[in-house]
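<purpose> Linking amino acid order to shape
<body> The protein record starts here
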Amino acid sequence: MKGIYRRTTKLGFNILRLHYTADPDKDPATPAGKRWYDEARKGMSDARWRQEYEIDYGALGGQLVFPEWDASVHVVPAFTMNPDDWTIWMACDPHPRAAHAFLWLGVNRVGDMVVPFSWWHEYDGTERERFTVKDYAEKIQLVEKTKGFRRPYRVMDVAGKSFNVNEEHNYFDGYRDAGVHFQPAKKNRDLSGFELVNEALKLKPYNVGNGEETRPRLTIMEGNEELAYQISHLRFAEFRGNVVDKDSPQSPIEKRRHLVDALCYVLLDKPRFVEKQAWQLYEDPRVVRATG
């Protein structure tokens, strides 16, 4: 039967594989299937499609996580973000035995997203000492004051609730006590955060005057070399062993990815522009997000 396959594992178990072509309405050989296929392929890389839909073990093995990245397109000159025109969102990726990572992202009225600043001190070439939560909080407050990032909406990896700052507090409590408040970020389930980053990196047409140009929704300012490195170098693990009896590798292998994770947390929270009046009316950005 079309679209249904059987394989036998090395232990003798028979497993049925159901391919989308078993459904006539999803078989590209039919008119309805062709429409479904064209729609389903939108926004998905070839490697991801082959893994998810073509039962291709190892399709992502060794592949770049962000194939859309192009430094000549996605890195832009630094500029000052007018708080009347940009809403700032911020994320923290904490770790009990590694440096915490921080990333700020601005969103304007038309949905353009720009990363003006990111920080992961372990790879700045000079600071190797272990920071405390109080040290990190002071750094956050200094950055936001210096950059003019007014009352950003902050999220943190929900795992921070399980990491102890000391014997009494988790990271959410520790940062709160130091004067910096975070809300739990949404989890990057099934690498959905990576898909959001790739989608935002894609070039899309925009009307400019009487003409049209293509540009991405997401860019980063010059000076964020570590973030640019992580985005450009992150790859999926190479698949090793018998691909017939194992699932394909889904996890990126690069440990140097904390700023990328922070970027995912921001995008998973669906950042958007909030008018100045709304920020003045409410103290809690979460109230603004729910009602603005």
Summary: The chain has two domains: 4-42, 71-291.
